[in-house]
Write a structure and sequence with these properties.
The complex is a heterotrimer of chains A (131), B (450) and C (494). Helix content of chain B is 38%, strand content 14%. By secondary structure, chain B is an alpha/beta fold. Chain C is α/β, with parallel strands linked by helices and 494 residues long. Chain C has 17 helices and 12 strands. Chain C is globular. The chains are: A alpha+beta (131), B alpha/beta (450), C alpha/beta (494).
Chain lengths: 131, 450, 494
């Protein structure tokens, strides 16, 4: 893993969360998830000002062979959406942790972050699934 | 047990060889996994096999028990129409490479079907003025219900407003479908034979997912889509239009008048009436809903050498992948009828379809005018395409029985669906000649005066 | 074969026409006097402009790029790609059937209603049900219709049962139909023999069980031997049993869903009863029910009043209408003709031969592929490409390689509970020679995987087009022809 991922938090639904300034976080899907999905063809993100709720669906991500729900790792209000993905969903495959981010959220309950996994725990979690 | 059935090729020797290879003594042994107490004892109680010549005779006899539109001129419409179908249509759809194929899951050996569907999608987009069309649906009625379900799912609102001037069977099926997910369906009352915009404004609210109207409507009249769109838009409800594709040769495309979803049935273009089915629903949407469209859709792409080819695409949302999360359970289309319709539209072409629509307009106009001259009241207050309502001094059922005696199939009785007594919905297609129309008017006059 | 790659729009030239309509014999009408301007079409629909022969050549060329049953073997599991008899096509095209309007007075369509009535009766016998509706257009619509009846049945008893149980090997339509009908789906895992796990089923059955949906034989081609016990478990909890008739080709005249304990059945006439698949439809999915569910059948129903056939919409407990008019009549006619052609003995032989053929082919192929359920099958069987996968060749590649030999591949990657699945259904209408030839090719491919995998990985080699880029198709969808694109190209050229 690259240096950039060391400070990220992860959900068991394979989203990563990056803490930005204040209560603002950026959300994306993990490298593990993009590999499992294969060629991503479309992302349905929530819109700015939409409310997202922890562990509830916030959108869908579509590959040629599957559509998967995106489960929000936090609760809060959407403040930014990665518009680039609309024309270039493959960005998620190419660069899931940076250019392939999904949305930014102003979180309403910072305590929720505590239940997320750190990189090491997430790696252990995905390895478990491999067996 | 040898080849006594022409569809079963096994000879006695074939079967013996296969059984021997399987090391079983009889075919019955292969069915021993069916518990004995649920095995069928004796034969199925159905009629014995009939050889082909006798069966053809029997089917011909059954067919002649019906009166067809080639024998008696028909003035029935109400969603299904007697239109001319060019001979090439039947010849081309009879190519068994088309009709004996399954859904084109293997694109390398299905390019013919896939391209034909791609062309069909294009023609539907052209007629409706929409961005995207799917490969077809069961029929226009079920397409309408699917459109309502799409609107409910994508707006997350739970009420559908449907004009009472939408086909009664569409509304009935919509009610059945709505019972599944449990959204509500409210009907919009009419002024004369047109959707009442005042009532629409009263009924529409923040929970309205979509407004549905028909174009031309069930009574043949042409609704003002612009006004309806305004009301829908103000309330952020989707605007769904059910349109007769032939009429769209003359009428402004619903896509240009703000429709979000346009649906209908291709039957008027190349598909026989066939006692109501199979017909062919179409389903077109604006780009915004491209990835929510139910059913199958064909897209253009390339192979590794850069050659153009076609594949089923946007499939990930379909039932066979999404299972219980799928937005629709539909896993087939009416490919062969979509093909028939494409061939008919190709045969008619850009000019022919307008000419055909114009003939419909003129003949119905002529019939209405002639009836008026004879003192009949035409109830349509708005302009109509190829259907209109005439008021009769007697029950439609009685009149239709008399017309039948005179060798004419009369119009649709509005009593049972609308409670409108003595009102007959007449359809006049390009198939009806001036003589047939004149004869109808003459017989009608005699009936009501007699 | 001459290569042909044009779209109909690309051969179109302004001024050509492929049909001739009569001149108007009535007064002309100027639409601009009739309608406000904004409701009159301003830009004509760009339909193609070609002569009749150009049209014929175009569609003939397209048909040459398509593989149907008449072209060759089509062992697509679960789809029952059997021969589509020609007499059925002739019957459906008789004017007395094709040119009748659904709203004609019933006196003028007695022949059509007789066909529908008799077909209802015969399908009821074949399935062991008490009544049948012919309305649903396809299997999926049949499933939904059946589930709406399940819902109405429970509602009438004052119950709202929310759960539909579906085995993990079920067709994708089962859970999708359950969702559309407003139920939630509970998946029941299969046991190691590929059958419903009775113990697991018992755990999930309860007061919230609306129905169990089952295919028997199941999608692995195996007969659910414990079906009587399964039915008992579901019935004791107050639930109903729904039979997905996709695999009915295995049981004609041998047993019936009624005897197995099912309450509702749908049939796919385009599978078992030889009506053509048409490249994806139209089909027909009639639904049969046991007596207790008759009141909920969709309306109108075709009934007999003395000697006269009638349409009756007056059934107050009915779930309502599910489909326009009376179903896909043209398809129903074909199935009726087929049942008449075969009779009771013929139908029984259909299933016997279908099962014999499947077992013969299975046994011929088992030495060369993993056979996760090696036992007597019914009309179809599954193999796994897992052995080949270890050598770097996937089932998809082998499927593509089959195209080079003129075969449509089997169903692949379904059912979901078998790795690298190949699901093969040879049907009864294929000769032993065809089965042997197909087996030889499959064996050859298995050997190629070991000796020369490249030839499989790069397949197909002989088709009009190679493997297509599905990712591009889904990422940047091109779903219609755009004239503008062509204009640009031409401008560039000139």
């Amino acid at each position: 893993m690259t240096k950039a991922t060391a400070n990220l938090l992860y959900s068991k639904e394979h989203e990563w969360v990056e803490q930005l300034e204040g209560n603002r976080v950026r959300i994306g899907i993990s490298d593990y998830a993009q590999k499992a999905l294969g060629d991503i063809v479309f992302v349905e993100n929530p819109e700015i000002d939409d409310e997202v709720i922890v562990n509830e669906s916030m959108g869908t991500i579509e590959s040629v062979k599957a559509v998967s729900e995106l489960y929000s790792p936090v609760s809060g209000t959407v403040v930014a959406v990665n518009e680039e993905l609309e024309g270039a969903p493959e960005t998620i495959n190419e660069n899931p942790f940076e250019a392939g981010w999904l949305i930014e959220v102003e979180i309403s309950n910072p305590e929720e972050l505590e239940s997320l996994l750190n990189e090491e725990e997430y790696e252990a979690f995905t390895n478990e699934g491999e067996e | 047990m040898t080849s006594t059935y022409r569809y079963l090729p096994d000879t006695k020797q074939d079967q013996e060889e296969m059984l021997e290879f399987l090391q079983v003594s009889s075919i019955d042994e292969l069915f021993e996994d069916i518990p004995a107490d649920i095995r069928l004892q004796g034969e199925l109680n159905i009629p014995q096999a009939v050889p082909e010549p006798l069966l053809m005779k029997k089917m011909n006899q059954l067919a002649t028990k019906n009166i067809n539109a080639n024998q008696y001129p028909t003035f029935l419409g109400a969603g299904t129409y007697d239109h001319y179908i060019p001979s090439v249509v039947n010849h081309m759809i009879s190519r068994s490479e088309f009709y004996t194929a399954y859904t084109p899951y293997q694109p390398e050996i299905s390019q013919g079907e896939l391209q034909a569907i791609f062309e069909f999608q294009t023609m539907v987009c052209e007629l409706t003025g929409m961005d995207v069309a799917n490969s077809s649906m069961y029929d226009g009625f079920t397409s309408l219900a699917e459109a309502a379900s799409l609107a409910v799912a994508s707006t997350r609102r739970s009420k559908i407003l449907v004009s009472k001037a939408v086909h009664p069977e569409s509304r009935a099926i919509l009610r059945t479908v709505a019972d599944g997910p449990g959204y509500t369906v409210e009907e919009i009352q009419l002024t004369d034979e047109i959707t009442d915009l005042g009532k629409l404004k009263e009924q529409i609210d923040k929970d309205t997912a979509a407004v549905i109207v028909q174009y031309p409507n069930f009574f043949g009249s042409i609704e003002d889509l612009t006004e309806i769109k305004k009301i829908a838009e103000e309330n952020k409800a989707l605007f769904i239009v059910s349109a007769n594709p032939l009429a769209l040769a003359l009428l402004q495309a619903p896509g240009k008048l703000g429709a979000d979803i346009v649906i209908g049935d291709m039957q008027p273009l190349g598909i026989p009436m066939s006692f109501g089915g199979p017909h062919c629903g179409y389903f077109a949407v604006s780009k915004k809903f491209m990835r929510k469209i139910p059913g199958r859709i064909v897209g253009q792409t390339e192979d590794e050498k850069g050659q153009r080819g076609f594949v089923l695409t946007l499939q990930a949302r379909e039932q066979h992948i999404r299972r219980d999360k799928a937005s629709s359970n539909i896993c087939s289309n009416q490919a062969l009828n979509a093909l028939a319709s494409s061939i008919c539209m190709t045969s008619l072409g850009k000019q022919g379809i307008r000419q055909m629509a114009q003939l419909n307009l003129e003949k119905s106009d002529y019939m209405a005018k002639t009836l008026k001259q004879k003192g009949f009241v035409i109830l349509n207050q708005s302009p109509f395409f190829n259907e209109f309502v005439v008021e009769l001094p007697r029950p439609v059922k009685e009149v239709n029985a008399k017309l039948l005696e005179a060798g004419i199939i009369g119009g649709f009785d509005l009593e049972s669906d609308y409670g409108h007594e003595n009102q007959m919905l007449l359809a006049v297609t390009e198939q009806r000649t001036k003589e047939e129309i004149d004869q109808f008017v003459e017989v009608l006059e005699a009936i009501v005066n007699g | 074969m001459v290569e042909y790659n044009d779209l109909i729009f690309e051969i179109s030239r302004p001024g050509r026409i492929g049909s001739s309509l009569p001149e108007s014999d009535v007064d002309s009408v100027d639409i601009t006097n009739k309608l406000p301007k904004h409701l009159i079409r301003d830009v004509p629909a760009e339909l193609p402009e070609v002569s009749e022969l150009q049209l014929v050549r175009h569609y003939t060329a397209l048909s040459n790029k398509n593989h149907g049953i008449d072209n060759g073997f089509y062992p697509l599991g679960s789809c029952t790609m059997k021969y589509n008899p020609k007499i059925n096509e002739d019957v459906a095209r008789l004017e007395g059937f094709s040119r009748i309007h659904p709203y004609q007075p019933v006196e003028t369509v007695q022949g059509a209603l007789e066909v529908l009535y008799e077909l209802q009766e015969e399908l009821a016998v074949i399935t062991g049900m008490d009544a049948v509706t012919l309305q649903p257009s396809a299997g999926a619509q049949g499933e939904w219709t059946g589930l709406m009846m399940v819902k109405a049945y429970h509602a009438q008893k004052g119950e709202t049962r929310k759960q539909v149980l579906v085995p993990d090997s079920a067709h994708g339509t089962n859970p999708a139909s359950a969702t559309v009908a407003g139920f939630e789906t509970i998946t029941i895992p299969s046991n190691e023999n590929g059958l419903v796990n009775l113990e697991e089923l018992k755990k999930h059955v309860g007061p919230d069980t609306a129905a169990l949906m089952l295919t028997n034989p199941n999608t692995l081609g195996l007969f659910e031997k414990e079906i009587v016990e399964i039915a008992q478990v579901v019935h004791e909890a107050g639930g109903l049993l729904y039979y997905d008739g996709a695999n009915a080709n295995a049981i004609l005249g041998k047993t019936t869903p009624g005897q197995m304990g099912f309450d509702i059945v749908h049939l796919n006439l385009h599978k078992t009863f030889t009506t053509p698949h048409g490249g994806g439809g139209p089909g027909a999915g009639p639904v049969g029910v046991k007596e207790k569910l008759i009141p909920y059948l969709p309306v109108p129903r075709v009934e007999k009043d003395g000697e006269k056939y009638v349409l009756n919409a007056n059934h107050p407990l009915s779930i309502g209408r599910v489909k326009g008019y009376y179903g896909n009549f043209g398809i129903l006619l074909r199935a009726y003709t087929y049942i008449r052609t075969m009779g009771p003995e013929g139908l029984r032989q259909v299933s016997e031969s279908a099962v014999l053929h499947a077992n013969y082919l299975r046994k011929r192929l088992e030495p060369y592929f993993e056979a996760p359920y090696s036992q007597v099958c019914k009309h179809e069987f599954v193999l796994s490409g897992s052995r080949q996968k270890k050598l770097g060749v996937r089932t998809l590649d082998m499927a593509k390689r089959l195209l080079d030999f003129g075969y449509h591949p089997p169903t692949i990657y379904f059912p979901l509970n078998v790795e690298e699945c190949l699901m093969i259904e040879p049907t009864e209408t294929e000769s032993k020679e065809t089965l042997d030839a197909f087996a030889d090719v499959m064996i050859q491919i298995a050997k190629e995987v070991e000796d020369n995998p490249g030839v499989v990985l790069e397949a197909p080699h002989t088709t009009v087009i190679g493997r297509l880029d599905e990712v591009q198709a889904a990422r940047q969808p091109i779903l219609r022809y755009e004239k503008a694109v062509e204009v640009e190209k031409e401008t560039v050229k000139s």
